[in-house]
C-alpha cells in the first residue's frame, strides 16, 4: 500500500532515526579532523618538505573523486544505513595505518583510501538523511550538515589537545577510532529499515504494483528509470552549484590565513581566525537553515545566499583590512551554508533515476570542486595576487545566484 508522508508530528521511529543519522554525520566529521592537527608531527616524523606533504595530502580528494561514483551502487546493494554506519567503522580503522606509515608514499596511499571511503560514506549518510526528511515532511538536512561541522570542530579540538599533550599518534587515533566506531554501531540500530524508496509515495506504489498488488497501480509513470537530457542538464547545474559551495569553503580553509598574514600583515593567531569565521558562520547557517528554507524555499534562500557571499567577500576585497576580511569570510560561509544540502536534495528528487544516483553524481562533482579549487586560486594568485585570486569567491557567489533558478521552492517530496 502507498506510504504517505505525514504532515503532523514525526513518529518515534522518525525521531530516533534522525538522532541516529545525526550521530553518523557527527562521527564522519570527527574521525578525519582528528588527524588534521597532527599533520605537523607527521611531516616531521617522515621528514617531508612542504611540497611533498602537499602532494601526499592531495591523495585524499583524489581518492574521493575516483571512488565517489561507486556510492550509488553500494547503496543499492547494501542500503544507505549499512554503507554509512559500517563505512565509518572501516574509515576509523583505516586511520590507524597513518602512524605506522614508513614514508610519504604509504601515507598518501592511506589518505587515498580514507578519501575514497569518506566520499562513499558522505553520499550514504546524506541519502539516509533524505529518507528521514521525507518522513518529517520538512527540511532537516541543513541541521544534519551543521552537526557534521560540529563533529569537525570536535575532532579538530581532540587532535589539537592530543598534539599539545604529546600523546602518541597511535594512541590518539586508536582512542578516536574506538570511540566513534562505537557511536556509529549504536546509531546503526536506530536507522530506518527497508528499501531506499520506502518513503517516496509514488515509488512505493510502483514497488507494490511490481509485487502484484492490483490496488496499487504505477504512479506518474515513474517505473521507467533512464537518464534523459533534462536530467543530465539538471545534474550538471546542481553539480556546479555544489562545486561553488566547495570553492567558497576551501577558500577560507586553504587561503584565508595566508591572505590575512601575507597581504594584511596579521599575526599568526589572528590569521587563523579566517577559517574559524567562515566555519562558525556556516555552522550557524546550517543549524538555523532548515527553518529558513521551510519558510522561503530552497530557490530563494540559495539565491539570497549567493548574493550575500558575493557582496560580502567583494566588499572585503575592495576595502582590505583584517576586520573586513574576517567579516567577508563569515558572510561567505553564511551565504553558502544551505547550498550543498539544497543541491543534494534536488538531485535526490530528480525523477527517473535509480536510488542514490543523482545524489552520487552531485557529490562527485562537489569533490571535484574541492580538488580543483586550491590550484585554481593558487595559479591566479601567482599571476596577479591572492587578493585577485580570492575574487573566485565572488564569482562563485554570483554563479550560485544565477543557477538558483534550477531549484524548486518545495522542501520535501
Give me the number of helical elements.
19
Q: How many beta-strand runs?
A: 0
Order of helix and strand elements from N to C terminus: HHHHHHHHHHHHHHHHHHH
- Regarding CATH, which class of the largest domain? Mainly Alpha
| Structural Rg | 21 Å
- In terms of DSSP E residues, the strand content is under 5%
Oligomer: single chain
- Ranges with pLDDT <50 over ≥5 residues? 1-6, 203-225
Q: What is the CATH homology-level superfamily of the largest domain?
A: MFS general substrate transporter like domains
CATH architecture label name of the largest domain: Up-down Bundle
Bulk shape: globular
What's the main sheet like? none
The structural class is: mainly alpha
Task: Give average pLDDT, whole number.
Answer: 84
What's the helical proportion of residues? Answer: over 70%
Explain what you see:
The protein is an all-alpha fold and 413 residues long. It has two domains: 177 residues, MFS general substrate transporter like domains (Growth Hormone, Chain: A); 178 residues, MFS general substrate transporter like domains (Growth Hormone, Chain: A), CATH 1.20.1250.20. The protein is built from 19 helices and no strands. Helix 6 runs antiparallel to helix 7, helix 7 packs across helix 17 and helix 13 runs parallel beside helix 15. The longest helix has 35 residues.
